[in-house]
């Protein structure tokens, strides 16, 4: 029987995987059990944030050493999703999702289930369009099947890493007679994130195929999934998906829950998602309960209308600090204050991922004691 | 009988005082009743933040127009304390503290009392030394007397604006045979803030004259006052003090309370200071109670030891974003989330102002309905 | 007979106009002779750069004091064009363009001539469209007439400040049944700058009315004027124009010359424009010739294709430093090195102002001795 | 007979060593001939710039693959000196210094000679003190011997990478009864750079052992070497030295020259150093001569007195952009404009490296045709 285990590890810098190395060397983690990594590195989170590439290169070299497989192959098998930017009280860290086979017997309780899947490479002209949405949706369903989750409502968090168009890919597509949506990588990334969110919503049955057109992406913000967490980058060519949910086919004592966040001040969502897992925050999680928490996953967005609850914010017009850095720092300050810990994953770029101007929060916690 | 009133107003940009102008024109505020201004402007909060000067120039021109007094005189009579930096969810705003005479009769209840005082100009060679501490302490006591607050424990927040040494002032002092502590304005500002905090602690009787030496400043962080909020700038030559407390000699229905914050995650302090004023945050202040709140005043500091509750933060080593901008954004995210409003004053540079690595929070709220 | 005089003055901060005040008090400058100001302030040069507003407010209050006219009127009569951002070796300064009447007699030599003009307020729906281009062109011709410059080739520099659309103006236009080009102020600013550049080109006869359509703006970069320097801002409602050229109807000993800059490495253009004025730079302007120089005016732009002379630059993908700050610092380093002085006006946002990926340089210098 | 060859290669991102890999695979470069790398990566150049570590990890893995030696050994044999920050027109690139044995016969002409050396690990309590200076001086002399350069005046550029104190190293030293100069890594880095510059000056005989005390470091700026280029970092434990000079014992057609730069506007130094190599810049290097240039190496510093040639600069007081980023962008703009190429190494932190407020420039060029 499969058991999901999550190890939240700290790093001294983006190339520091020593804690994972030590756990593998000591035998606590079996390298072949590593299914996915989700982490925060201390870059700026923008196009020129190379801390993600540095971490990934180091990770794959480490796993390659332990598994005797080429890093170039591992990178296509193990999703490594990193968000740059540890503004304010956030602490650089990474969660290692492992799936050891254990001889536990089913208890009937629904426990954390993990599934991953990779789509076929996506053609440049499809990025940010319906074909992209459908590719993501199919890959999400495949990851759900891989996780053995039977009911869609038991899925609580879907992390997708989407390819986007580069200048070179766009040029090649045009030369082949195709018409990419845009040849601007930045615009392409935003459309790719939107396609990823629509794909999750479609894959989870939150919307239907007829509910949207290509023009809905980055335009109709009523379409959103509170379980979608999307990143996009030039370094991937297919959609990579990690599905997290609960299933009675899994052993262990971890469970996951999620809540949409209405806006950047929605402390209620944080308290509620903890309550879903039997953890009180009045006003802060107790030291004992804190040891039960394995991962905090948050998406957020600076309100594009320029105010929060009627009061003007200055994030969108700041030439000195990128708006995503502003919002990550603010929301992380709130979440870390309720949790009492800075090792939280707070990621920006939340278009169509939770309510417009808000986002979502998912928490993984042990149902008894700490992990 | 004096009544303290606080008007929290928004600005469209740092030169926008139109809301105050309108209230004066309409007669809601009498220009001669304006005793002090405390506000947040949308600059970077550093040496090259000119939004404070822009706001101050505009404010003094406005009051000059209404009062028929020269701006150059008003600037020496009305403390205008601005903190630059509205990171994250903070909304640019300013609180106008007014003291109208009313014909109310004493009720015995302690209500918000406001006192201001200006010291004599401080010699450059005294900045950041015992003479500076003593000058602040004396000015604080003068402001307390001005406020008519009888017991020191009824003082809850002391805002001080301290002069620092400029290259020119240091050179003049040296030419006169004096020895300034430093001729580096940035170092001087930090020592001036420390002297201000020690001065508040001394003025409030929290420490005694024998408890410290010049060497204690910026060194012995066990010395601190949870009621001191200090800023320092080249634009002032004397210590300017605003004391806020409660007194039964004042009418109105506002009260103030304060709490030290142990660290950047101390949500308990926020909930407690609200409870001191009879306001619940479970987890957030209700819409009805929100209308009772007049001002939120917070000081904070990136932990100089490089971690928060045992987990590494990256604020101090970030070459891209100043550490004070990081911590203001994080703490403001937490406070605004509990309050449900981004119009909060969160200021950095909190050396000796509350616990090391933490800071303090003060709240002014009406005891019945809104203001 | 009119004489053009240019005073290049330094400031200690964006609200420091003390050098101008002193010159007026001493009688060197007659306040009523001030025709225009062009300056560099030390903000970030972006949407949230308030150093421009702070300087303008201080300037207009100063002139109002000396002239006895309301500041609100002066701001509609005297163009004050500021560019934020003194990256690298640039020194904050402003050039005051004055037009005293003198009893000089014509010598036949062409000397610096200054003309200003203001258009009627521009309707929001016209911003960034042909009507905008035509309004600028007409205002440019009016300013040329005002300067008494007879031949279009004698115009060397046209500074235009264009209105753009704000969210509020766009909403009002839509409510009135009009269709603004965009309601995004940032996009509107870029289109307004493009319209300004097309307007200058049209006004100077560099292009004809049939040479372009609305779609050419920000798209056909072959259309450009090497004499156009455009800024755009929410604070103006009409197009403000300052024309600088040479005319035998003017006295004095100043002359102006200009050259297009092919790219950010075009040192040849700098040397050539100096040579046009009889000044050698081999490799640097001599101390004696340096005193002859009154103003250096430069526009530049980070190459939007991502490389300079075949080598990748990183300006456009930097999340930490705005691309315009990068290019201003680099080009200013080059120009200041050739001139030997950091008091140069280097402004970004040079769409259609000089060659694509480059820009332009104009220099004003005395033809004998210094000014 | 040894021949020095220099390959200047571009990178698409800090982990991109594909151009070097291709040259090795094609046989143009023999991996065992690689003696040192000096490069510019596109980080922020500060403490949290991880592009240097990313590049180094990738480089060492690449050489390890080709040489069959562990990367951990190579990192102690091949100096890899990186400067973060490609502000403005700088293009990310790296120069690979190779020393193939060739069967050339001596011509008597002095040609580029390369020498490297590593000191023993430096004790933490010695960092930034005389023992550090002497260790660097000895290592410099060792590298000169390694290069076979006979006369000290034939040395033109000495690159040193110095260890600094980390919090951990300082703590260990204190526990062992030693007294480190400081336990602040940032201060330690500056003192380490100063010790490196003094060490180069001592090793080159520019100063004598009696000319300075510990107190001279970061204080007596009259002590400086126009041939010293120092970096400091937590990642090294010994002093790493690369000496570049000219020697008749070397074949090839490369030569190196250097000049001090008096300040950030010293275009004369750039023109002069090119002239030393027979290259004219009037005002720019010709396309033909440009192909002869192999490397441009520059050190610079924002003038700590706050002005350049009497005019105030704003680099030191900018809370948004680090002063080193400002000065690198400005000086690179000037150097690249004279050269006509953005692939130049411009590094900040030039304390005691060239004149105070200035720096130095070294150029390597072929004496006939291109390389």
UniProtKB/TrEMBL annotation, chains A, B, C, D:
**Lineage, top ranks:** Bacteria, Pseudomonadati, Pseudomonadota, Alphaproteobacteria, Hyphomicrobiales
Sites where the protein binds Mg(2+): 301, 350, 353-355, 358
* Similarity comment: Belongs to the cyclic amide hydrolase (CyAH) family.
Q: Which UniProt keywords apply?
A: Hydrolase, Magnesium, Metal-binding
What EC class is this? hydrolase
Record's keyword annotation contains Phosphoprotein: no
Q: Oligomeric state and partners? A: Homotetramer.
User: Which organism is this entry from?
Assistant: Bradyrhizobium commune
Q: What is known of its domains?
A: The monomer structure is formed from three repeating units (RUs) that share the same structure as one another. The monomer and the active site possess nearly threefold rotational symmetry, to the extent that the active site possesses three potential Ser-Lys catalytic dyads, but one of the 3 active site surfaces varies in composition suggesting it is involved in confering substrate specificity.
* Active site per database record: 161, 231 (nucleophile)
Instruction: Give the EC number(s) listed in the UniProt record.
Output: 3.5.2.-
Q: What is this protein called?
A: Cyclic amide hydrolase
Cite the binding residues for substrate.
Answer: 52, 83-84, 193, 231-232, 328, 347-348
One GO molecular-function annotation for this sequence? hydrolase activity, acting on carbon-nitrogen (but not peptide) bonds, in cyclic amides
RU C, as annotated region: 254-371
Q: State the superkingdom.
A: Bacteria
